[in-house]
Amino acid sequence: MDHGRLRDEVSIETVGEEVIVHHRFIDLRLPRGWVDKTPEIRAILNREADSDALGFQDKQVNGIVEFLKLQDCFFHSRAKDAYSLREIKDIFESIALGWFARYYRHPVWNRLRRGELNLNGFLAWVLHNYHVSRAAGKSGSRCAVLFPKRELRKFFRSDVLEEYWHCDAFYFVRHPDLSISDDDVKSYVPLPASLAFEQYTVAVAETDWLAHLLISYFQESSIRFYADCQKFYSEVEAAYNLPDFFKTWTAHMRLDFDHGHADNFVEILSSSDNVSHELFVGSLAAAWFAFSFLYSSLDQIEAEAAKGAAVTLRKPIRGGVLDPSTSSLCRVVRRVEGTNLLEFARVFASLDELQPFEPGHTAFLANGVLEALFYAMSFSTEHDEIIVLGRLIEAFPSGKDSAVQDHTSSAAMAIVSFLRAQACSAKTLLFVIQIAINLGCEWARPAAGGRTRLEAFLKTDAVIDRDGWDRFATSALQWIELLNWGAGASEACPSSFEI
Ligand SMILES: [Fe+2]
């Protein structure tokens, strides 16, 4: 039954003598005794009754049903073969509200509000915002050159120019009570989910214009929480004793508001252009991954706090030294050395930083490796790189061109996005693939002939100097961190959306 039932996101909880209906930002508390002796209400809460079909005689029942209707608690399917962008926006609006509600229910917000998250976690949150801001110009730039429609390319050309400098103007940590330099901010290694958000949204801009518009609309429409944000910021400033910390963040929100960013996306999504059901569903799933990265970053902010109370930034590796006391990206103390990328890959694979890796997404991940190899070949300018990439591609089972499948996890998508982002440097991509092979990731393992070719290339054609070590070392640690995310539990893409 898809007409008039309670939405999936509505949850019912019985606590003591109350039955609580949770939906987005509201909780409706009903007396348990009354619910138990009112079969119409019980049937609605059990999703056994259609809210429209029954004519409720009881005034109280009617009142409750009307209230729930006004809160958009009931789902009325609008599925059909094709939709105008305006219809898509209306359908997405409900889905986006559900995402916002979930996002703001995350426990990290109250911990920040009360100053309970340590400074490490506080800074991880602040810098996550810096990274999301920094990503805006990047993904918009892809849209400015690759979007299929001229008007949209034109729109993104000016949108990027309004956005790209906001990370520089508003998100440094220049508070007198915190000694965090601009360089600390610029070099802070993004949390795995912040990085995934950036890499994924850039990739989506190339392949799925509708998904990118939905993601942008979702982000920009957060301006509707402006007043709540102001209140939240002042509570956080007080809790951490950091007066005026969010002055620039507020200025940024006002600027986005004055530029009418959210309105721009409303306007774009108001056209009567038609989109097929299939494309819409695919774009919704793609937008969900971007949301899931934003959500996962909240978990990872808490995890960063759990590493220790003393402020340890996620600094990139310097001088070939891994040290958890200077960079929270490291887990063990070690000096890493090697003259070529094959040796280097062995060192990182032996660090014992990886949890047992048994993902259920082997075909999806293997396809991600293959696509990244093709992608790398398209960027490559060197003979030997083209040949080794081709040999490796030949050494993988050709497989299907498998796009997202049901239940692909956000971490698997993050891994694939990372591989794809490395493809602009064949050496870096091959280096991280070698680490994955050494760590026993079956999906990264080409047939024996390919492995020999890869090892020979990394040994002789990928000799690195001291300056290169640190960059590769940092990438290796980011990669292992991502693999660890993949090894743990991460949320799967829903198999359907309420359309
Ligand atoms: Fe902005």
Please summarize what this structure is:
With 499 residues, the chain is mostly helical. The chain has helices spanning 32-36, 39-45, 59-70, 85-104, 107-113, 119-146, 150-163, 166-170, 182-187, 192-207, 209-220, 226-239, 247-258, 261-268, 277-306, 341-349, 362-379, 383-394, 410-422, 426-438, 448-461, 466-487, and strands at 3-6, 11-15, 18-23, 26-31, 74-76, 82-84, 274-276, 321-322, 334-335. It has 3 domains: 3-76, Outer Surface Protein A, domain 3 (Alpha-Beta Complex), CATH 3.90.930; 82-306, Heme oxygenase-like (Heme Oxygenase, Chain A); 321-487, Heme Oxygenase, Chain A, CATH 1.20.910.
Report on the architecture of this protein.
- By secondary structure, the protein is mainly α.
- It folds into three domains: 3-76, Alpha-Beta Complex (Outer Surface Protein A, domain 3); 82-306, Up-down Bundle (Heme Oxygenase, Chain A); 321-487, Heme Oxygenase, Chain A, CATH 1.20.910.
- The chain has 22 helices and nine strands.
- A hairpin with a 2-residue loop joins strand 2 (11-15) and strand 3.
- Helix 6 packs parallel to helix 10 (192-207).
- It is globular and about 80 Å long.
- The model has no long low-confidence stretch (mean pLDDT 90).
Query: Based on the structure given, which CATH architecture of the largest domain is correct?
Result: Up-down Bundle
Strand content: 5-15%
Note the main sheet. 3 strands, antiparallel
**End-to-end Cα distance:** 13 Å
The average pLDDT score comes to: 90
List the total number of helices: 22
* CATH class descriptor name of the largest domain: Mainly Alpha
Structural class: mainly alpha
CATH H-tier superfamily of the largest domain: Heme oxygenase-like
Helix residue percentage: 55-70%
Q: What is the tally of beta strands? A: 9
